[in-house]
């Protein structure tokens, strides 16, 4: 495992920690899109089907379990926790996320590395992850006061994607047969979705003003 | 290529 990959996984983990900190400690999920969180839970459930079948490393297994447990518990908190769910900004979180699922599934049936159940589900999870941030970005645009933790959460998520691209570039030159078109194309699309957010995030940080996305 | 695709990333 190279340094980019490790740094990518760590920023991904950090984003989850930041979000759990907000939800668990501050008991607030204001500015967080439940739709995006539901999509992530589905992404991890579909991708980690091989968890108990195919062992890669202890690191891999533990990280998978962490992402599965955290994504489902975040959804639980936002839907069921009696204090947290009251802070959910339901009226602004209106993205029709169900309409993302079917096209991703159709695409996975058409474009996959191998036409098997697990490979189709893997491709599905990759496509769905690429667009899962959209409800969150839409909600951010509609949120007047984006708090620091929410901004940091999205920033770390985006940073994770950038680092994964650097990891692929590194692997492409160091590993002889490392070509995964599906994850590369989907990963680049996913990263580009953050470009606008990154611009405003860095500007707000540079100018020391509160983060706000233009509608 | 083998029968299983190696997905070693998260």
From TrEMBL, chain A:
Subcellular location as annotated: Endoplasmic reticulum membrane
Signal peptide (from-to): none
GO cellular component: cis-Golgi network; endoplasmic reticulum; endoplasmic reticulum membrane
Alphabetically ordered keywords of this record: Endoplasmic reticulum, ER-Golgi transport, Membrane, Protein transport, Receptor, Transmembrane, Transmembrane helix, Transport
Molecular function via GO: ER retention sequence binding
Pfam families assigned: ER_lumen_recept
Bilayer topology annotation: Multi-pass membrane protein
GO biological process terms held by the UniProt record: protein retention in ER lumen; protein transport; vesicle-mediated transport
Segments passing through the bilayer: 52-78, 99-115, 121-140, 152-170, 182-202
Main localization category: endoplasmic reticulum
Keyword Protein transport recorded: yes
Keyword Lipoprotein carried by entry: no
Similarity-based family: Belongs to the ERD2 family.
Designated name of the protein: ER lumen protein-retaining receptor
Annotated source species: Oryza sativa subsp. japonica
């Amino acid at each position: 495992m190279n340094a980019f990959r490790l740094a990518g996984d760590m920023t991904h983990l950090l984003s989850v920690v930041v979000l759990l900190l907000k939800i668990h400690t501050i008991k607030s999920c204001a500015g967080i899109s439940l739709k995006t969180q539901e999509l992530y839970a589905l992404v991890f459930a579909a991708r980690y089907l091989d968890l108990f079948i195919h062992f890669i490393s202890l690191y891999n297994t533990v990280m998978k379990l962490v992402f599965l447990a955290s994504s489902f518990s975040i959804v639980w908190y936002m839907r069921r926790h009696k204090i947290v769910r009251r802070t959910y900004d339901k009226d602004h979180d209106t993205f029709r996320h169900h309409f993302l699922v079917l096209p991703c599934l159709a695409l996975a049936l058409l474009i996959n590395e191998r036409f098997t159940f697990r490979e189709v589900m893997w491709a599905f999870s990759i496509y769905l992850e690429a667009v899962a941030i959209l409800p969150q970005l839409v909600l951010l645009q509609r949120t007047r006061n984006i708090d620091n933790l929410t901004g940091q959460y999205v920033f770390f998520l985006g940073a994770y994607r950038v680092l994964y691209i650097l990891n692929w570039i590194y692997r492409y030159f160091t590993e002889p047969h490392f070509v995964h078109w599906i994850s590369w194309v989907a990963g680049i699309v996913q990263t580009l979705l953050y470009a606008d957010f990154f611009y405003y995030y860095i500007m707000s940080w540079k100018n020391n003003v509160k983060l706000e996305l233009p509608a | 290529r083998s029968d299983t695709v190696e997905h070693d990333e998260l």
